[in-house]
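User: Could you write out the 3D structure of this protein bound to flavin-adenine dinucleotide? I've included everything you need below.
Assistant: Certainly. Input first, then the structure.
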Amino acid sequence: MKIMPCPLNGPRNINEFVYGGEVSELPDVATAPDSDWAEHTFYAYNGTGIAREWWYHVASGYWFVAERHRVTDEIIRTYDPAVLAEEKAQ
Amino acid sequence: MPFALLKYGLGSEYPFEKHADLPPPTALKKRYDVVIIGGGGHGVATAYYLAKYHGITNVAILEKGYLGGGNTARNTAVIRSNYLTSEGVRFYSESVKLFRDLSNEFDFNIMYSRRGQLTLAHTDSAIRAFRQRAEVNKHFGGKTELIDPQQIRELVPTLNMYPGQQPVLAGLWHMDGATARHDAVAWGYAKGATQRGVELHQLTEVTDVLVRDEKVWGVKVRQGSAEHVIECGIAVQAVAGHSSLLAAKAGFRLPIVTYPLQAMVTQPVKPFLDPLVSSPAFHCYVQQTGRGELVFGGGSDPYPLYNTRSTMELKEELLAHAVELFPFVANLKLMRQWAGLTDMTSDYSPIMGLSPVENYYLDAGWGTWGFKSTPICGKTMAELVATGKVPDLIKPFGVERFSEFRQVNEMGATAASH
Ligand SMILES: Cc1cc2nc3c(=O)[nH]c(=O)nc-3n(C[C@H](O)[C@H](O)[C@H](O)COP(=O)(O)OP(=O)(O)OC[C@H]3O[C@@H](n4cnc5c(N)ncnc54)[C@H](O)[C@@H]3O)c2cc1C
């Protein structure tokens, strides 16, 4: 059984979690052209490196971020989304 | 074929097939008119039809592993055309028609077997969706009907009609549903193509796509430790799960995410299951092979990955459902398990046709549904290569649909409904 280190609940079975897509920047709602929305909606990261992803712990209703290697499946780091806000503020 | 068979049957010598094998490998040439990247079913079928219908034979198929060793070797060989969209049904029914004649055309038995495919509805909303699919199918000449529980019992007497908390309420009975030997499809096409002069280079990986002024002019390949540059007029990429990686080498992105898809097979038992049976609500489908094994498959893995490992999680979930549908299979042993890399699009339709690079054509986004389309993909891609015009049948599947918000929402795809 693969283990996901949840920032809130600690290590848990991966099938308690749902994958929620790549962490990406929302286009500017007021000004972004259609092409930016197409890019944002359909063109996700699909490389062979480390991806930044949303994950959801179903039982506790908790969203967080995981950095995971797309070839080895190694989960390198998980953290609370507050970290994203801090990064943005900097 | 039948007379030859009779002659061998009466003769005392072991039948000797002159072209039983593929020709031995040759050295790569400096230039080809057409280079096909990926020696799966789609790549070799494209080469076959290029040679057969368009007389284009200065063609090289470049395959990093072995002929048909990718998803072509890993799929569960469900052939059907009972999709939902008009674009999809029209396209897949052409493929089913081509499949029927392949054994004769190749003079090589692909073991095409028309068994019919039964999809189960456990809710009223599923029945409504099935009605729509049946009508769309009939409109395009397919044989698909909505059937009731009594008819299901007659078709599959061993099915548990009250699995879990969700009784079987109705079925979508697709009489054109079939299966075939997937390896034979790849070999049949490869033999036909190489006999007509096409070169198949296995263990030849494309490491770069060479583009000048937004036009492809060649590819870089690696054979063992040797590197070569090959020039080409046209290049086609048909690399399934690796589609995004190849496109990146050509300098553009694709709206594709790669997910593993797993399947498994049990030890053989006496024949009891003729149709292919699928339950979207139970995320599982099953069929019995000619050898008696049960093949189980379902939806893609829950998160993206470039890795063909198998997992315990998927097996537990999928087989728990399978046992509800057919309780007596609980004691069977699994013999093999495997996974392939599927190139998933968000509308569950393929990406075929032109790319942002001139003379570089795409056959991608085949996800969990591309074995059944092998013949028609080969035929339409060959037409595109030969004429430079996108055939009508594949026009709806161009990559530009994602920037024009013109998706072909194929909810009849296995991954979509599972
Ligand atoms: C478990 C499973 C079950 C499935 N079940 C069904 C089913 O029941 N019905 C159905 O219709 N479809 C099914 N599919 C989907 C189907 O298998 C694929 O869509 C189809 O086989 C794709 O064919 P292809 O020729 O494009 O790809 P492949 O057969 O994968 O061929 C692509 C080839 O490209 C090669 N390649 C990759 N990168 C390079 C490179 N850089 N240079 C050179 N070569 C390269 C690979 O080695 C590979 O051989 C299933 C898939 C899986 C994994």
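The first strand of chain A starts at residue 3 and ends at 6.
User: Perfect, thank you.
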